Amino acid sequence: MKGRSRCDHCGTQLAAADLVPIFSYAWLRGKCRYCKQPIGGSALYIEIAAALIGAISAMGLDGFQAFAAAVFGWLLLPLGVLDYQRLWLPNRLVLLLAFGGVLIAPLLTPDISWMDRVAGGLFGFLALEGARHAFKALRKKEGMGGGDPKLFGALGIWMGWQALPYLLMLSCVVGFAWVLFSTKTERTGTTQLPFGIFLCVSAFALCFSI
Ligand SMILES: [Zn+2]
Fold first, then answer.
1. How far is the CA of 29 from the centre of ligand 1 (A)?
2. 45: CA distance to ligand 1 center in Å?
3. In whole angstroms, how large is the CA radius of gyration of the chain?
4. For 31-74, what is each residue's pLDDT tens digit?
């Protein structure tokens, strides 16, 4: 979140040549130039995902709208990855998404009015926050992470309140598919699922049809 990129193992600050997406990884054969420890596959997968987001945006939309879709996807990518890896949606990244929505979303979804965006932000946050508290009161345990309502609200700014029911439904479908095709066999009522990544994937897919 701050400072220059460093090797996870030896802490050496990385030079520009070490940070060229995909190419540096391939050139260094997945190992740190300085300590020769493996970089880890997720860096490469994230770079490939970022390239795909750009390519899909360029193919699906034109001009500024394509640019805005790519920015939307790139803001969602670290949120989805961190939710998947750590079940963590950092407030600062959700805020960046919300702020980006205020600046860039009008390019992506020009037909959505500011009233609809404000309503989307409020309604999105309150709907999931309400569901979270209701579940907690009824079942005496956490049913949802605290970051999900904030993320849903930020997405409401991007897409307007009208898109939120579809977004929620699609996220659930993606979540069910995740559980069905997941290789982990053990699942109980207390297994934690990264709902944030389902929201991120669904929001990026839906933004092409608004
Ligand atoms: Zn190193």
1. 13
2. 19
3. 19
4. 999 999 999 888 899 999 999 999 999 999 999 999 999 999 99
